[in-house]
Design goal:
- The protein is an alpha/beta fold and about 325 residues long.
- The protein has 2 domains: about 260 residues, Metallo-beta-lactamase, Chain A; about 45 residues, no CATH class.
- The strands form 4 sheets. The chain has a 7-stranded mixed β-sheet. A 7-stranded mixed β-sheet has the order 7-8-9-14-15-16-17. The chain has a two-stranded antiparallel sheet with strand order 10-13.
- The radius of gyration is 22 Å and the shape is globular.
- Its EC number is 3.1.26.11.
C-alpha cells in the first residue's frame, strides 16, 4: 500500500514557541520522502513523529533563513550515522551555496557520500530525480532573500475499466498489450483501442510555498494542487507587516488556494506573536475566500494527500463489441 502524506515536524516562523518547533515538513510519496526546510530541532521531531533518516530521499531548502535550514547539520549527520545507503538529493538556492557548505560541514562527524548536491538558479528549474514517479519543479518567489517554492507533479495516466475489457473479450496478456501499444485484436477479430477500455487518470500534485509575498510564481506552483502547503505567517490585521517582511496572510493564502483550484490547503509558518488561542482565526480568515478543505498545521500532525480524483466513465451504452 503506497503512502502519500505530509508529516509536519514544525510550524513556527522565525521564533519557535512551546508548542511550535521551527519548520520541517516530510512529504512521503510512494516510497520517496522529500524533506522541506528542516529548521532547528528537526532531527528530534522526526523521532517524535516516528520517521527516520532512511525515509528521506530528497532534501529541499526554500532559502537560508535560520528557521528553514538550521536543522540541516543534524539531519545530514543522522543520515551518516544511520548508514543511509540510497542517494539523497539536496536542493538549495545556488546564491546560498556558502551557507549550505557551512551547514553541511558544521561539526566533526564520520561523513557520508550519499548527499548529492543540486544548487538551483533561475526563475524556474526542473529538479533531476532519476527514477522518481513524479517531476519536481522549483520557482523563484518574492522574499528579502532568494527563495524558491516547489511543485511535485505526477504524470497523467489511465485507469483500465474491467467491465469494458470483459465486454470486448480482452483478458490476460492482451490487457498488457493494449496498454503498451494502444490497441489489440480481440479474440472475435475486432480491433479494440485503449480509449474504449479506459478513462483518463489525472496525476496528483502537491505544492510547497514558503516565505513569499504574493508574486507571479505562486499561481503556477499551486495550480490544481491536491495538497498545497503554504505559509500564512500573519493574520489580516497585520497585512502591512506581511508585505514589508515578504510573507502572506491567512486570507491571501486562502485566495491563492481558491484561484488555483486547490483541494486541501495546509496553513503553516505562524508568527510567534499569535497565541495558541488564535489558531482558529487562521482557518476562519482563509475560509472567507476558500471554500475547500483547510488544515491549520500542528506539530507532529500527519495530513494525507486527498484521494485521487475519480473520472466517471461515459455511459457504457454501445460499449460492447460490434
Amino acid at each position: 500500500m503506497s503512502t502519500r502524506d505530509l508529516v509536519i515536524l514544525g510550524t513556527a516562523s522565525a521564533v519557535p514557541t512551546r508548542v511550535r518547533n521551527h519548520n520541517g515538513y516530510l512529504l512521503r510519496w510512494d516510497g520517496h520522502g522529500i524533506l522541506f526546510d528542516p529548521g532547528e530541532g528537526t532531527q528530534r521531531q522526526m523521532l517524535h513523529a516516528g520517521v527516520s533518516a532512511n525515509d528521506i530521499t530528497c532534501l529541499c531548502l526554500t532559502h537560508f533563513h535560520g528557521d528553514h535550514c538550521l536543522g540541516v547539520p543534524g539531519v545530514v549527520q543522522r543520515i551518516a550515522r544511520d548508514g543511509v545507503a540510497h542517494p539523497v538529493r539536496a536542493v538549495f538556492p545556488a546564491s546560498g551555496s556558502e551557507y549550505w557548505r557551512r551547514l553541511r560541514h558544521a561539526a566533526v562527524f564520520a561523513d557520508t557520500d550519499v548527499i548529492d548536491e543540486e544548487p538551483i538558479a533561475g526563475a524556474e528549474v526542473r529538479i533531476g530525480l532519476p527514477g522518481a514517479p513524479f517531476t519536481l519543479t522549483a520557482r523563484r518567489l518574492s522574499h528579502p532573500v532568494e527563495s524558491y517554492g516547489y511543485r511535485l507533479e505526477e504524470p497523467d495516466g489511465l485507469t483500465m475499466l474491467p467491465d469494458r475489457l470483459a465486454a470486448h473479450g480482452v483478458a490476460g496478456p492482451l490487457v498488457g498489450t493494449l496498454q503498451r501499444e494502444g490497441s489489440v485484436v480481440a479474440p472475435n477479430g475486432r480491433t479494440v483501442t485503449l480509449e474504449e477500455c479506459s478513462v483518463p487518470r489525472p496525476g496528483q500534485k502537491a505544492a510547497f510555498v514558503m516565505d513569499s509575498r504574493l508574486c507571479d510564481a505562486v499561481a503556477p506552483l499551486a495550480a490544481g494542487a491536491d495538497l498545497l502547503v503554504i505559509e500564512s505567517t500573519f493574520l489580516g490585521a497585520d497585512a502591512r507587516l506581511a508585505e514589508e517582511y515578504g510573507h502572506l496572510t491567512a486570507a491571501q493564502a486562502g485566495g491563492v488556494a481558491a484561484e488555483a483550484g486547490v483541494r486541501r490547503l495546509v496553513l503553516t509558518h505562524f508568527s510567534e506573536r499569535y497565541p495558541a488561542a488564535d489558531q482558529r482565526r487562521f482557518a476562519e480568515e482563509a475560509a472567507t475566500v476558500f471554500g475547500g478543505d483547510i488544515v491549520v498545521a500542528r506539530d507532529l500532525d500527519r495530513v494525507p494527500v486527498p484521494p485521487r480524483r475519480r473520472v466517471v466513465p461515459a455511459s457504457t451504452a454501445g460499449a460492447g463489441p460490434a
